[in-house]
Design a protein that fits this description.
The chain has about 290 residues and is α/β, with parallel strands linked by helices. It has seven helices and 19 strands. Helix 6 runs parallel beside helix 7. It is globular, with a radius of gyration of 18 Å. The N and C termini lie close together (about 5 Å).
Length: about 290
């Protein structure tokens, strides 16, 4: 398998631009895959610099319905209108983040306008549960969470027919209910050496994402985990627990990217050594 980071928060590669977002180009088993598409059309600039032809990609996968993972898909579709894009059926909801106990004024959801959505619609393949693209390439659908799980960050979505619900809040004149992030899904690829699991932000928990990936191919070991882990706001205790559980998997390689947070990246690198790779935009890996 070969994969290359088209978009990541950071870069040290000349000519490649970083932005807050994630996009990974994957080649494996005769397929070319676009996992997420960053926040803007920057994906095209980096693709040209890196010598990647977006028009040859077989299909795209949307990890979840946030702007920093989906902004490049309208341009990708213009270049490659025949490529299907696997996206969760709940990913098009309008949603908001929260900071310091206050709901953001601007949404963090997919930023496609009506015209872009209309153009994209023929390519969208809506998922819910497990979706088998090939025998060895699977999209998990909603990442399950155990009872009592508390995420590191709360998101809110526009209320739809929920006016009587107790958990409705109003912010800037908009009625909102908690977003359970049911639109978050992982890409899982089975290779001879084990499973490769790709998770965009792991808003439902990186260990839950890892377990969701493992459940697609029961009994198979995980070889590589590439994930935004959303641990920058986690407590020291929770961060240490996650690092312990990741280390216990004895994977060949762990790549904490995008929203993981510098403390968690440092903890993973200290714990795993060379088995933890800190990837940046423009990097290429042949594993």
């Amino acid at each position: 398998m070969k994969f290359r980071f088209l978009i990541e928060n950071k870069t040290d590669n000349p000519g490649v631009v970083a932005e807050h977002g994630l996009s990974i180009y994957i080649e494996t088993q005769g397929k070319k895959i676009l996992f997420d598409a960053g926040a803007t059309e920057m994906i095209l600039l980096n693709a040209k610099t890196m010598g990647i032809d977006l028009g040859t990609i077989d299909f795209g996968v949307v990890s979840h319905g946030h702007y920093d993972h989906t902004g490049g898909f309208p341009l990708f579709h213009q270049i490659n209108p025949g490529a299907p894009i696997y996206i969760h059926r709940n990913a098009l909801r309008v949603s908001y983040g929260m900071e310091d106990g206050k709901i953001d004024k601007e949404p963090c959801s997919i930023a496609w306008n009506d015209e872009e959505l209309k153009e994209l619609s023929p390519a969208l393949r809506f998922t819910d549960g497990r979706t088998d693209i090939t025998e060895n390439i699977v999209v998990t659908g909603t990442v399950p969470i155990p009872e009592g799980y508390v995420p590191t960050e709360q998101f809110w979505r526009v209320a739809e027919g929920c006016d009587a619900a107790e958990d409705v809040v109003e912010s800037n004149g908009v009625k909102l209910v908690p977003d359970d992030m049911s639109h978050e899904q992982c890409l899982v690829i089975r290779e001879p050496e084990g499973l490769y699991i790709f998770s965009g932000c792991s808003h439902r928990g990186v260990i839950n994402a890892l377990n969701a990936g493992k459940s697609m191919f029961p009994g198979e070991r995980v070889a590589v985990l590439v994930a935004g882990m959303h641990l920058y706001s986690a407590s020291d205790e929770d961060r240490a627990r996650v690092v312990d559980e990741i280390a216990a998997e004895n994977m060949d390689c762990v790549m904490p990217v995008h929203c993981t947070g510098i403390k968690a990246i440092c903890d993973l690198k200290t714990r795993l050594g060379d088995n933890c790779i800190v990837a940046t935009a423009g990097d290429e890996y042949l594993i």
